[in-house]
Amino acid sequence: MVHPFLFLQWIEEQLHLHIGEHVTYTWLVMAILIVVSFLATRSISMIPSGAQNLLEVVVTGIDNLIEETMGKEGKAYFPLIATIALFILVCNLIGLIPGFYPPTANLNTNAAMALAVFAMTHIVGFRKHGISYLKHFMGPIIWLAPLMFVIEIIGHLARPLSLTLRLFGNMYGHEIVLMIFLALVPLFLPIPMMLMGVLIALIQSFVFTLLAMIYIAGALEEAH
Q1: CA atoms of 3 and 23, how far apart (whole Å)
Q2: Fewest C-beta in 10 Å: which of 16, 40, 166, 203?
C-alpha cells in the first residue's frame, strides 16, 4: 500500500534505516501503551480519576469478558488477553491519523500474534491435561479417531491463518478506502469514514481477542 506520507518512514529515511513501517509503528504503539500505563499507575488512588479511571474501566471490561468466556480459570491468562486486545485496538486506531500506519494492516504483525495464540493454546492444553490433551483431537467415537484426528489437525492449523487474514483483510481494506477518500477529497477529512474506522477498529480487536479466548478455553476443557 502506498501512502502519500508516513511520519516515521520519513524519520527512517533521514536516518538511513530500512526497518519497515509495520515494525516502526509497532514500536510506536508499544511506547504509547507503556507511557499510558505508567501515567495511569504512577499515583494510584482509591478514588480514580483521569488516566487511572480510563484504564480501570478498560481493565475491568476485559476481565469481565474473560470470566464470561473462559470462566474463573481464564483469569490466569489475563495478561496475554489484555495485551492482545489493547495492542490491536491501538494499532487499528492510529491508522486513522494521517501520516500514521496501522501495523495490523500488515500480514507479519497479525501472523506473529496469531502464532502466539496458537502456541499458547496447545501449551495450555498440554500443561492442563498432559498427554491426555490429545483426546481433544480424537472425537467422541473411538473408531472414527483416525479420521477425526486429521480433521482436527487441519482445523487447528487453519486457526492462525484465519486470525491473520481476517484482521489483515479488514484493516488493509479500510486503509485502501481511506486513502481513496483522502485522495478524492484532500481538503476535507472524510469524517464518516473516520467514524466507521473507529467502529471497525473496535470490532476487529474484539473479534481477535474473543477468538483467542475461545481457543484457549477449549484447550482448558476436558475432552469428551
Answers
A1: 16
A2: 16
Which of 221, 21, 191 is closest to 108 using CA atoms?
A: 21
| Domain containing residue 93 | 58-220
Q: Can you read off the three cell numbers belonging to residue 127? A: 500443561
Q: Could you tell me the maximum CA-CA distance found in the chain, to the nearest angstrom? A: 67
Its pTM stands at 0.86
**How many domains does the chain fold into?**
1
> How far apart are alpha carbons 49 and 52 in whole angstroms?
6
Does residue 182 lie within any of the structural domains? yes
- Rounded to whole angstroms, how far apart are CA atoms 110 and 166? 9
Q: Is residue 31 part of a domain?
A: no
Q: Tell me if 20 is assigned to some domain.
A: no
In whole angstroms, what separates CA 67 from the centre of its chain? 19
Give per-residue pLDDT as tens, 40-87: 777 776 666 666 777 888 888 999 999 999 888 888 999 999 999 999
In a domain, 117, yes or no: yes
Q: From CA 47, how far away is CA 38, in angstroms rounded?
A: 18
